[in-house]
Specification:
Layout: H1 12-20, E1 26-27, H2 28-38, H3 47-60, E2 63-69, E3 75-81, H4 83-108
Antiparallel strand pairs: 1-3, 2-3
Helix pairs in contact: 1-2, 1-4
Length: 109
């Protein structure tokens, strides 16, 4: 059975983008595919959400970008985490761990 696609909760997009870029640089489409992969197909990031988030995260200093060629020889902007981005990934991971634990506890009562 296919997992149901879900809208992203407030604040999760940044964390998923940071996580997707943790191991290697990627272009936008690659990031969207990776997010879908690491969430088991639960989340699909649309370009209208992804690219403004990437731009904002670049302005925050969490990402850096450079132009290169994609797998199909097209010009693409590749994003990678900065040191600040790695730190933000750790911070966001810890924060979402606390949130998910609190939600699990609340649902058990």
């Amino acid at each position: 059975m296919e997992p149901a696609q879900t809208s992203l909760l407030q604040g999760t997009l940044d964390l998923l983008i940071l996580k997707a870029l943790a191991l290697q640089e990627m272009h936008g489409l690659g990031i969207a595919r990776r997010v879908e992969q690491i969430t088991g197909g639960t989340f699909q990031v649309k370009p209208g959400s992804l690219f403004p988030a990437l731009h904002r995260m670049e302005e925050e200093g969490w990402l850096t970008a450079s132009w290169g060629e994609s797998e199909n020889n097209r010009r693409a902007k590749y994003y990678r985490l900065t040191k600040l981005g790695h730190k933000q990934l750790a911070t966001e991971t810890e924060r979402w761990g606390r949130i998910s634990l609190a939600m699990a506890q609340a649902l058990e009562t």
